[in-house]
């Protein structure tokens, strides 16, 4: 919460309205049906720069806040989405907007500037009609979350261990005749039994399904010698993300020459790009120094060189060298950031090799948080 309030001060905001359940948890450490409330706007929080931190919770969720010191005031939320409000949506919208506006004008000292992370257009229009100056709050929340505290790093280390245990279960079951979905179920099982929360994607593929990438697992049967590639995107215990990728052969066969060549290239890319990371290095300089993908693989590459990670995939995002010129943005790496360094290596008619490691940027350079072994090629 202190980091969020610091960003509010930098942007001269009197308040910050949070709907994203990840941002609410970041501020208060309290959860309530995270996935469901991510697409049903029934709970929200308002942080006042010079006033209280107010949580608007569902009536059934009020007991979740017993003994929580971070919240100054707890109110029952006014949900105005059509699924709940129906024909009274406009009425409930007015009640909601009046309550938010009253808090901002009471505690804002004349400042009506408010940062909002997510809100349907009707809500933004209603707040503006009442005199509030709306700013996109995603820059503030992403920047705040990009620097991890020691407690966050400790929780992330535990989530990575859970994720690696899940990958080990997949590895042990990577035998001919198993389907992609059966293998992915091992990830869900290990995460759930260890107190984890959900999986952001279903990215596990075998054989021809690995190229092009982004095939989500289905009932395809994996055959002996085919490449199995996966990307975990796991939200684990305490809400932190482990985003790791590995590839290996079904049945643990020796890799073919094309599999070996592309695996070695992918590992070179991840190793080289990880070693570059240091506080003060600009994203542009990182891109210039990054590992060069062979021409024949560029059309099949991942697109990203790396991205931030915390309670989910986060800012910053750095594109690969051959597409950076069009998509690059300014910034530099800072101590306390955690990033995922990516590689996807494939060519026309081949399988894809997907590798990814999670890295803490320290004053002394990069520290890998994962230790699940690479394959020997």
Question: What general outline do the C-alpha atoms trace?
Answer: globular
| Separate helix tally | 13
Strand content: 15-25%
Elements, N to C (H/E): HEHHEEEHHEHEHHHEEEEEEHHHEEHEEE
Give the oligomeric state of the chains in this entry, treating copies of one chain as homo and distinct chains as hetero.
single chain
Distance between the termini: 46 Å
Number of strands: 17
**Structural class, from secondary structure content?**
alpha+beta
Biggest sheet strand order reads: 4-3-2-1-5-6
Mean pLDDT: 96
Tell me the Rg in angstroms: 23 Å
Low-confidence stretches: none
In which range does the helix fraction lie? 25-40%
* Major sheet size, sense and barrel closure: 6 strands, mixed
Explain the overall architecture:
The chain is of the alpha+beta class and 377 residues long. The chain is 36% helix and 21% strand. The protein contains 13 helices and 17 strands. It has a 6-stranded mixed β-sheet, with helices on both faces. Strands 14-13-15-16-17 form a 5-stranded antiparallel β-sheet. It has a 3-stranded antiparallel β-sheet with strand order 7-10-11. The longest helix is centred in the middle third of the chain and has 23 residues. The mean pLDDT is 96.
């Amino acid at each position: 919460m202190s980091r969020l309030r610091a960003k509010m001060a930098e942007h001269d905001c009197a308040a910050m309205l949070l709907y994203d359940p990840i941002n609410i948890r970041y501020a208060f450490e309290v959860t309530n049906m995270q996935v469901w409330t991510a697409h049903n706007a029934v709970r929200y929080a308002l942080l006042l720069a010079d006033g209280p931190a107010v949580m608007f919770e569902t009536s059934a969720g009020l007991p979740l806040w017993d003994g929580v010191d971070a919240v100054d005031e707890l109110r029952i939320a006014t949900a105005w989405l059509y699924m709940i409000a129906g024909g009274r949506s406009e009425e409930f919208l007015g009640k909601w907007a009046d309550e938010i506006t009253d808090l901002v004008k009471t505690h804002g000292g004349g400042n009506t500037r408010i940062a909002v992370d997510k809100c349907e257009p009707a809500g933004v229009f209603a707040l503006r009609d009442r005199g509030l100056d709306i700013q996109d709050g995603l820059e503030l929340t992403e920047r705040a979350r990009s620097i991890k505290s020691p407690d966050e790093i400790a929780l992330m280390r535990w989530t990575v261990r859970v994720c690696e245990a899940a990958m080990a279960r997949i590895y042990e079951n990577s035998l001919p005749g198993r389907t992609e979905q059966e293998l992915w179920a091992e990830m869900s099982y290990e995460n759930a039994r260890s107190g984890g929360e959900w999986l952001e994607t279903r990215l596990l593929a075998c054989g021809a399904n690995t190229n092009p990438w982004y095939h989500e697992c289905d009932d395809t049967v994996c055959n002996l010698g085919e490449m199995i590639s996966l990307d975990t995107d796991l939200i684990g215990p305490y809400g932190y993300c482990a985003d790791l990728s590995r590839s290996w052969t079904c049945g643990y066969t020796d890799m073919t020459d094309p599999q070996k060549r592309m695996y070695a290239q992918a590992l070179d890319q991840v190793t080289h790009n990880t070693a570059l990371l240091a506080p003060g290095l600009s994203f542009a300089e990182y891109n210039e120094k990054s590992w060069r993908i062979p021409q024949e693989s560029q059309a099949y590459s991942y697109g990203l060189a790396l991205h931030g990670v915390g309670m989910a995939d986060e800012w910053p995002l750095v594109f690969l060298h051959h597409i950076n010129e069009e998509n690059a943005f300014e910034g530099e790496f800072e101590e306390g950031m955690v990033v995922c360094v990516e590689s996807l290596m494939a060519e026309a008619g081949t399988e894809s090799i997907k590798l990814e490691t999670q890295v803490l940027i320290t004053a002394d350079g990069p520290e890998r948080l994962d230790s699940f072994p690479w394959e020997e090629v």
